[in-house]
Specification:
Blueprint: H1 16-22, H2 25-28, H3 32-48, H4 54-72, H5 85-97, H6 110-146, E1 151-156, E2 159-165, H7 166-191, E3 193-194, H8 210-216, E4 221-222, H9 226-231, H10 234-260, E5 268-270, H11 288-311, H12 326-347, E6 350-352, H13 354-360, H14 368-377, H15 382-399, H16 408-414, H17 428-433, H18 443-458
Parallel strand pairs: 3-4
Antiparallel strand pairs: 1-2, 5-6
Helix pairs in contact: 3-4, 3-6, 3-8, 4-5, 6-7, 6-12, 6-18, 7-10, 7-18, 10-11, 10-12, 11-12, 14-15
Bound molecules: arginine (ARG).
Arginine binds next to α6.
Length: 469
């Protein structure tokens, strides 16, 4: 283990086991860039506030900038024996510019430093997540637009319900994803409070300028309580909660597609490039990608639980427990980014089995509510109309007949308000056409929504940097 930042007071060396057990370098190394950016702002502030000399400040900033370049070029040497990324960088700076490097840690503790690093990292990752969500929305919208003339049977309780436009179903996903995006943007507001200057927990007697550091690093506000600054991990929990809800949405979308791709449904074909086969059953084409998308929910919820349990009952202020907020945070972000990336690509490659879908629309139970509403329009009460159609359904099921098989005379037996006119509404297009209420599935409403989303999403010129482009 490298020389400790705090070793002087120690009567003897720490055990190697302790060094290994307490080290976080294996995972916090990913914060290197943010640690250096934070340090540059801090060093500049120390110079401006005359806590260190201008010259010392310039020397430190120069050294840090050269470390930053190494990090960006992937050339920075991580010392796996370092206690954490903060000591690793401090040590590298000493090597570069000598003893003056030690002045960098003036009016700062790793307790406020780590919160700053994680907040900066999260702010960047929220940008990435928002971009990926927009790309997924665009991908789903593209699928909806390519298939704007497709009607599907919809389901409640996994039983056939009513006709809807496929595009309407896709727009439901886009709405949910929009709320996810909003949740991240909202979480960002609270992450955007700058903690540096809180030091160990009580602030400092030195004349620091926290406003300057805040502005340098692009934060919106300062944290207002030094104790809270080093103890708070709500911003991690909020992000993980947002990721958990998003993962639930993705799992539901994946599940719909898995069901639709079964032989039993046969609504869609998932492209071969997103399926796998079986080592024993030669006929198989399995939707493993979608299943793994569904599975990431468990992993991400686990990450959220992990941090919630970590925080529960933790006394103020900093405790080393807080080091363990990072593995679940990083895991959830990595898992989600991977999940979104492949889902974006998969959506671009779904094919519809139009004939199989059209065949399902022959099921006239899809129109039972339309007959109820037809009767209501003719002045029948809702209760009566429901009973009338209920009797028709029962008789048809008992006798293996369809609504459209019923003669005028037979219809009249159910209600004098029924006549051959109802045959007109036993049709999928008529059925969707009639759902003109705001947010309903009529082509008119859906086209309006498609247009709104196309405009809204067009404003974001983002492209996905993967092999699936
Ligand atoms: N590695 C620690 C963490 O991730 C930060 C260092 C604070 N350590 C300390 N002994 N105060 O939270």
């Amino acid at each position: 283990m490298a020389k400790k930042m705090w070793g002087t007071r120690f009567a003897k060396k720490t055990s190697l086991l302790t060094d290994k057990f307490t080290s976080s370098i294996a995972f916090d190394k990913r914060l290197a860039k943010y640690d250096v950016l934070g340090s540059i702002a801090h060093a500049k502030m120390l110079g401006r506030s005359r806590i260190i000399s201008k010259k010392e400040s310039q020397l430190i900033v120069k050294g840090l900038k050269s470390i930053l370049r190494e990090i960006e070029d992937n050339k920075f040497r991580i010392n796996h024996k370092a206690e954490d990324i903060h000591s690793n960088i401090q040590e590298a700076l000493v090597k570069k510019i000598g003893e003056v490097a030690h002045k960098l840690h003036t009016a700062r503790s790793r307790n406020d430093q780590i919160v700053l690093d994680v907040k900066m990292y999260i702010k960047d990752e929220i940008k990435n997540l928002v971009k990926l969500i927009i790309l997924l929305q665009k991908s789903v919208l593209g699928f909806a637009k390519r298939n704007a003339n497709i009607i599907l049977p919809s389901y409640t309780h996994m039983q056939v319900a009513q006709c809807i436009l496929l595009a309407h179903h896709m727009l439901a996903y886009i709405e949910a994803l929009e709320r996810d995006k909003d949740r991240f943007k909202d979480a960002k507001k609270r992450t955007n409070h700058m903690p540096l200057g809180s030091c160990a927990l009580s602030g400092t007697s030195l004349p620091i300028d926290r406003e300057f550091v805040k502005d340098e690093l692009g934060f919106a506000k300062l944290t207002n309580n030094s104790l809270d600054s080093v103890s708070d991990r709500d911003f991690i929990i909020e992000l993980l909660s947002g990721l958990s809800i998003l993962s639930v949405h993705l799992s539901r979308m994946a599940e719909d597609l898995i069901l639709w791709s079964t032989k039993e449904f046969n609504f869609i074909d998932i492209d071969f490039s997103f399926c796998t086969g079986s080592s024993i059953m030669p006929h198989k084409k399995n939707p493993d990608v979608l299943e793994l998308i569904r599975a990431s929910t468990g992993r991400i919820q686990g990450d959220l639980s992990s941090v919630l349990i970590l925080m529960k009952g933790l006394p103020l202020s900093y405790n080393r427990d807080l080091q363990m907020d990072k593995p679940p945070l990083f895991d959830a972000i990595d898992t989600m980014k991977g999940t979104l990336e492949i889902f974006i690509a998969l959506f671009r490659n779904i094919k519809l089995n139009e004939e199989a879908i059209a065949n399902r629309l022959m099921d006239e139970s899809l129109f039972s509510v339309d007959i109820v509403e037809h009767l209501i329009a003719k002045g029948v009460s809702y209760r009566q109309a429901h009973d009338i159609v209920g009797r028709m359904v029962k008789d048809c099921l008992d006798k293996g007949r369809k609504f459209s098989d019923l003669s005028e005379q037979e219809l009249k037996k159910y209600s004098d308000k029924l006549g051959p006119g109802i045959k007109r509404i036993l049709n999928a297009w008529t059925s969707v056409n009639m759902k003109r209420s705001h947010g309903g599935t009529s082509p008119l409403q859906v086209a309006k929504q498609l247009k709104n989303w196309a405009q809204k999403l067009k404003k974001n010129h983002i492209s996905l940097n993967t092999e699936f482009k």
